[in-house]
Amino acid sequence: MQKKILSLFMIILFFAANPTVFSEEPPEPPPQNDFQHNQFPHKSPPRNMIMNYNGRKMPRRYCEFSIIGVKVEEEKKSLAILVYFNDALDTTSILERNILIDDRPLPPFTEFLFSKNRRMMRVPVDKRFFTQDQFFSLKIRGVRSFDGRFMENTEIQNLEPDCFLRRHLQGEKWLREKF
Questions:
Q1: Mind listing the pLDDT tens digit for each residue in 6-33?
Q2: What's the CA gap between 45 and 43, in Å, rounded?
């Protein structure tokens, strides 16, 4: 009996000490940090900030986010397109409709594979998706880096199986290499 009276007394003291429990207006939320990437994706954190990305501490970059190489590998029933980036990319920004092959979006339910450090993306595409022409073009748009920098829309033409194109250090020139 004493335990019940004591617990009832504790409840009355709690509500008497906290009048905000019964007030109609909710208390003001605590001030939030403007530079939390997940809560404010439209705002960029400061450039000197080190961000936590997939359990790793990664510094912000000053350079633009871009593609540095594209490799096409021929497999039994598909072509694997490997795209190399100069920084880690945000995997949630990769969608089928944002990657175009010969001005056609990728088929639905295309599987995207990423390297551990998120600097390489592998896209296997069925050979039936391609036209009879040996060469094809690849357009990539709407891709973000891990810290929210958007990549410019990029078009790479004259891709073929078993080739590697890498971006020249100065400008938009792509250098072809066979492997």
A1: 777 777 766 666 655 555 565 565 554 4
A2: 7
